[in-house]
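Q: Hi! First time doing this. I have a protein sequence and I read that you can turn it into a structure. Is that right? Here it is:
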Amino acid sequence: MPEAGLSAGEVARRIGVAVTTIRTWDQRYGLGPSHREPGRHRRYSEQDLVRLELMRRLTTDGVDAAEAARIAKATSDSAAQVPPGRPLSPVHA
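A: Yes, that's right. Below is the predicted 3D structure, encoded as structure tokens:
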């Protein structure tokens, strides 16, 4: 039975970054899969994918990676689904 969710490689291809970037964002900023089972591969949900896409778009727009991660983690899924090509402005607290 196949595992549910996307692998890190699949996520990386979908959002256009290296798989090492996905793993780094997980380790440094806690932007990994929402659910993990011990001894199993990381599997990313659609919500995880939305969060990582927002992280990529923010960093591409020049937002510092740590700040982009904070925004991506704090943003609701509906707010994170900004149409492609629309510039994102950093949120300042």
